[in-house]
Amino acid sequence: MFLSLTTTSSGLGAPATDLGFLLHKNPGRPQSITVAGGTAYVLYPEATDERCTAALLLEVDPIALVRAGRGKATEGFTLGQYVNDRPYAASSLLAVALGKLFRTAMTGRCDARPELAARSIDLEIRVPALPCRGGAALAEAYFGPLGWQVDARPVPLDPALGWDDSRYVDLRLTGTMRLADALNHLYVLLPVLDDAKHYWVGSDEVDKLVRAGAGWLADHPEKAQISRRYLAHQGRLATAALDQLALDRLASVDEAELPDEPEAEVGDDDGVVPLATQRRTTVLEVLHEIGARRVADLGCGEGVLVGLMLADPAFVQVVGTDVSARSLTRAERRLHVAEMSDRQRERLRLFQSSVTYTDDRLAGLDAAVLMEVIEHVDPPRLPALARAVFGAARFGAVVVTTPNSEYNVRYPALGNGFRHPDHRFEWTRAEFAAWTSEVAAGYGYDVELRPVGPIDAEVGSPTQLALFTRREVAA
């Protein structure tokens, strides 16, 4: 199993052997590590000032792979787990070796040459035998949008016998980009093209995909198929990965790049209270009204509402969850968690969670808040949200706010768009009322709708709020 990576002095803007600094591997000293079922080597077939090639060679022992519990038991015949293409064809085994040998390079860190690590450089990559379930066209569809020139040549079987091409391609990539980006592309897409993994795929693989796909996968036209294949066609995991990629992308966008918000959202110089502030104030008033003391902010973002609840001694336990790890990191910084007193820290829990999946850590709380959250969920996923929040967690009360789309006519700057680029829908008052009634009836809650913000006689308030109260609690 073989992969080579080449650059030149002109493409690197430095002696070509500086590739060794970027990879953290000395061209003059071959290195090796033990991986599941074999040994991975890094060596340099050529290393001159003008041209340098680093090669990753993975020797796989099929018997050792089976003994490690990682060999596939069904390959079409009895000895299939021992006699197969794993020792020769690039696969998830090679991706794992890539991640172990070039872990630091994949993060974009190079203490010796930081300016070089941040620079786009000319690269040539070759994988001589890559299983490609989908053919050469699929390799082009995956690597092409990332800026690579793709030459995927089908590997023939035996033309003398009239056989067609095999499912393998000789993959050659040329492009100009950061080395870290190139390595992450390979780490994700090699096993995706093979469409098979040699190890059990669990929820931790979602984090690996999101981490390696940061900065490119969220915008890839084939992101859905890539996620499904990477996660062994487990729909639940693929959906979680896509949700997290979208939110991480949103969190990384500079606010200056976002379109202007409607005027009522930001207030003006005449003392108008911003609508975001009015929402938070109203939600806190509702929580006080129902006597909630242990509250979860689901989809807490950067923790603004969490911070307000922590500042209020009426709330003895405050939980903040979000699907975006980046948002939670920002929330910790905003709340100065590291500087909190022990007593204050005991009141707070921040953890990663999705509103569309059951999470036992949310059990036993008085109330939950979904403030401007549901409109970020794809409509087909709303029943899953209802099951998780109203069915499994069974909060005593749930407070939900969402935009009133009828009010958007009062925001000329919006045109026909939504109030935020990540909104999947925005409901009218009648649509929101229908959804809340259906959820309340299905899960044993009473629901009350309230306006938030200035009320327009024709189109209502800009934000609509629903207070769900569990019937057995209300009784």
Key features of this structure:
35% helix, seven-stranded antiparallel beta sheet, seven-stranded mixed beta sheet, SAM-dependent_MTases_sf, 19 helices, 14 strands, 2 domains, Rossmann fold, c-terminal autoproteolytic domain of nucleoporin nup98, 475 residues, elongated, alpha/beta
Report on this model:
With 475 residues, the protein is of the alpha/beta class. The strands form 2 sheets. It has a 7-stranded antiparallel sheet. It has helices at residues 9-12, 19-23, 62-67, 92-101, 103-106, 114-117, 136-143, 179-194, 204-212, 223-230, 235-252, 263-266, 275-290, 304-310, 325-335, 342-346, 382-393, 429-443, 471-474, and strands at 2-8, 31-35, 38-47, 51-60, 121-131, 149-156, 165-177, 294-298, 317-322, 348-352, 367-371, 397-403, 445-452, 463-470. The radius of gyration is 27 Å and the shape is elongated. The protein is 35% helix and 23% strand. It has 2 domains: 2-199, Hen1, N-terminal domain (c-terminal autoproteolytic domain of nucleoporin nup98, 2-Layer Sandwich); 274-474, Rossmann fold, CATH 3.40.50. Mean pLDDT is 85; it is low at 73-78 and 253-270. The longest helix is centred in the middle third of the chain and has 18 residues, at 235-252. Its cofactor is Mg(2+).
